[in-house]
Specification:
This protein folds into three domains: 88 residues, Rossmann fold, CATH 3.40.50; 210 residues, Mur-like, catalytic domain (UDP-N-acetylmuramoyl-L-alanine:D-glutamate ligase); 132 residues, Alpha-Beta Complex (Protein-Tyrosine Phosphatase, Chain A), CATH 3.90.190. Helices cover 35% and strands 23% of the residues. The protein is built from 17 helices and 20 strands. Strand 7, helix 7 and strand 8 form a beta-alpha-beta unit. Helix 1 runs parallel beside helix 7 and helix 6 crosses helix 12. The model has no long low-confidence stretch (mean pLDDT 94). Its main location: cytoplasm. Keywords: ATP-binding, Cell cycle, Cell division, Cell shape, Cell wall biogenesis/degradation, Cytoplasm, Ligase, Nucleotide-binding, Peptidoglycan synthesis. One of its GO terms (biological process) is cell wall organization. Belongs to the MurCDEF family.
């Protein structure tokens, strides 16, 4: 099966795939158009794996039997077009790694809430003593873990649409689809259906013995279910209606009901609050019930979970103002949930690389809650056009330090200063993590 494998991209997933390919006896070559981080370079050199950086040498790439592509590389770049024209299979690291394990998978996707739900499921399963690993769009790559660690019985995987695009034979034993709202449309020819199709790849290859957990309140998911033949057993969750098998919200509590065996948790007891986290908790709780984990153990884990860095993370209170880091909010829907969860007036820091954003859904909420908007980005034109006349005060800044100081001076005691960009970070920052860390650092320096 394994001959010459070329890895495009030398980040965590690429280096992990290279280590696994080498362990399986493949000839391996790693190519990265950018410069490789020293730690990854040292690892490749230490294992004697050939690589290049700062270029893609087509003569070394187009002789591959199979190519494993970083999810960050779009399909329309010249090297991918050349590979497809030659008929060379291009797959994701998850697809590649899954070929070399008998483990089962809980796979989680959605436009928002993936990381929180993935970590919550992992928290519950490990809390119950199950043999489980964590991979995908979070932590160490699946390929690295399969190459270097003792194999796990189960892996909990956070999967982005970009990872799903490169997956063909992979099967999720339990698939979770949280929501589908406009995101990354720049990668999908600005066609929403293309993005929806990408998300629904999470159920491909599932059988009647598998499970599909999804949000019954999401219109895009419901529309697709009407035209798709889903073979897996369906377990919906809803904030609006009671469901017979799945989870729902009623009388200030979440009810998990599987095979007429119910348990419930009052929402005020949950460690993570907000409507979006209600959905995340429902999905995670259904998964836990499928594993037949004891109800007291599930409840204890739901109450002890600490949440995710850069997702509605409380940083500090300064002069009575609460600073909240929601840098992970890289699309409009995610920022909608952040604003919805605020109980006070908000100074909103937003902006970055627009991914085809439609701000219509958030305007009413912004009018109600936002007293000032701080636009942080190299091109704020779309934000200015959409919120002029809706938000009383709008300012433009070009650095995080400037954004934090402006928000501080615009706020009053009792206000929330919320970094929830609704955009990607790549104009001013390496990624959303760097953006969030810099926000926290600037707040501490006030």
């Amino acid at each position: 099966m394994c001959k010459r494998i070329v890895i495009l991209g030398a980040g965590e997933s690429g280096v992990g795939a290279a280590l696994l390919a080498q362990k399986r006896g493949c000839e391996v070559f790693v190519s990265d158009k950018a410069f490789i981080k020293e730690s990854f370079k040292d690892e490749l050199q230490g294992h004697g794996i050939a690589f290049e950086q700062g270029q893609h040498s087509l003569d070394k790439i187009l002789c591959a039997d199979q190519v494993v592509k970083s999810p960050g590389i779009p399909d329309r770049v010249p090297v991918i077009i050349a590979l497809k024209e030659k008929g060379i299979p291009v797959i994701s690291e998850i697809e590649f790694a899954a070929q070399y394990t008998d483990a089962k998978f809980v796979a989680i996707s959605g436009s928002n809430g993936k990381t929180t739900t993935t970590l919550l499921i992992y928290h519950i399963l490990t809390g119950a003593g199950l043999d489980v690993g964590l991979a995908g769009n979070i932590g160490q790559s699946l390929a690295r873990q399969i190459a270097l660690d003792a194999p796990k019985e189960w892996y909990v995987l956070e999967l982005s649409s970009f990872q799903l695009d490169g997956m063909y034979d992979f099967k999720a034993d339990i698939a979770v689809l949280l929501n589908i709202t406009p995101d990354h449309l720049d990668r999908y020819d600005y066609e929403m259906q293309n993005y929806i199709d990408s998300k629904f790849r999470i159920v491909q290859n599932q059988t009647k013995d598998d499970y599909f957990i999804y949000c019954l309140d999401d219109e895009n998911i419901l529309r697709e279910l009407e035209v798709r033949d889903i073979k897996a057993q369906q377990l919906p969750f809803s904030n609006k209606v009671e469901v017979s098998d799945g989870a729902f919200f009623q009388d200030n509590k979440i009810v998990f009901n599987l095979k007429e065996d119910a348990m419930s948790v009052f929402i005020e007891q949950l460690a993570i609050q907000g409507q979006h986290n209600r959905y995340n908790t429902m999905a995670a709780g259904i998964v836990a019930r499928l594993f037949q984990i004891r109800k007291p153990s599930i409840r204890e884990c739901l109450l002890s979970f600490k949440g995710v860095e850069h997702r509605l993370e409380k940083v500090l209170k300064v002069r009575g103002m609460s600073f909240i880091n929601d840098s992970k909010a890289t699309n409009v829907n995610s920022s909608w949930y952040a604003l919805e969860s605020m109980g006070t007036k908000v100074i909103w820091i937003a902006g970055g690389v627009d991914k085809g954003n439609d701000y219509a859904e958030i305007k009413e909420l912004a009018k109600e809650k936002v007293k000032a908007l701080v636009c942080l980005g190299t091109d704020n034109k779309k934000l200015l056009e959409n919120f002029k006349g809706i938000v009383p005060t709008i300012v433009e800044v070009s650095s995080m330090a400037e954004a934090v100081k402006s928000a501080y001076y615009l706020g009053d005691k009792g206000d929330a200063i919320l970094l929830s960009p609704a955009c990607a970070s790549f104009d001013l920052f390496e990624n959303y993590e760097e953006r969030g860390r810099m926000f926290k650092e600037c707040v501490r320096n006030l």
